[in-house]
Design brief:
It is a single chain. The chain is α+β, with helices and mostly antiparallel strands. The radius of gyration is 14 Å and the shape is globular. It has a single domain, classed as Trna Endonuclease, Chain: A, domain 1 (3-Layer(aba) Sandwich). Strands 1-2-3-4-5 form a five-stranded mixed β-sheet. The protein has two helices and five strands, in the order αβββαββ. The mean pLDDT is about 85.
Length: about 130
Amino acid sequence: MQGTKEQAALRGSEGENLAASYLELQGLKVRERHYFTRYGEIDLICQDRDNTWVFVEVKTRTRFSNPTAAESITPAKQKKIVGCALSYMKRHGLADQQMRFDVVLLEDAMVEWIPAAFEPAVDYSF
């Protein structure tokens, strides 16, 4: 079982590297990777050309599965990502900046980038 966890971690790391490279080719600047807070983790934090802060969840699968990579980003997972993003924005004095939540799916050797994949379930304030 240990090998399986290590393989999954390696696959996830490789997927995040691929996603970061892909997003940079699309004009985003990767500012941080693996940002941890008590709310959880954000895989990639980027800035778009218009200076919007982009919080990216990366899902890597070696083949199509059920649930799909996109379906695995549940409302509970989204809530954790939003909480982590708000913590980042507050900690870095970015409360007046725009932000969005993207997803990059790496599934069966295909890359799919979904800008503004989800919105926070509730209004947020700092």
